[in-house]
Design a protein that fits this description.
Elements lengths: L5 E5 L3 H13 L3 E5 L2 H10 L4 E5 L7 H9 L4 H4 L3 E5 L7 H7 L3 E4 L4 H11 L2
Parallel strand pairs: 1-2, 1-3, 3-4, 4-5
Helix pairs in contact: 2-3
Organism: Rufibacter hautae
Protein name: Response regulator
Pfam families: Response_reg (PF00072)
Length: 125
């Protein structure tokens, strides 16, 4: 089997994090997590990340700020990591804002786990 792909989950709710992690691990993904925007930016520098599930309401730097910083990264491998926004209040943002920030896809909370797996598979090959 090919190397497992690494998904970074940026989520400050441990309940959501643990559920999401279990679902993705069942799909043979390696999962790393970050509880805030500062951790997200550090982790993408420190290891190869194949996709990010980005909660938009994380502390330190929110998901939109993190996404913009990742997109502006000097390293093209980091700058093009697929980012899937996860949020309970997407109504605060328009699709244009997501696109402008560099978000590839969006999943509403509560998470639909079938949709989650399908979306991750779409971006991580």
């Amino acid at each position: 089997m090919a190397d497992s792909k690494t998904i970074l989950i940026a989520e400050d709710s441990s309940v959501i994090l643990n559920l999401t992690k279990k679902i993705l691990e069942l799909q043979n993904y390696t999962v790393v997590s970050a509880k805030n925007g500062g951790e997200v930016l550090k982790k993408v520098q420190d290891q190869k990340i194949d996709a990010i599930l980005m909660d938009l309401n994380i502390p330190v730097k929110n998901g939109m700020e993190c996404t913009r910083e990742i997109r502006a990264n000097q390293d093209p491998q980091i700058a093009k990591i697929p980012i899937i926004a996860v949020t309970g209040n997407a109504n605060n943002y328009t699709l244009e804002q997501f696109k402008e920030a560099g978000i590839n896809a969006y999943l509403p909370k509560p998470l639909d786990f079938d949709m989650l797996v399908q979306t991750v598979k779409e971006y991580v090959h």
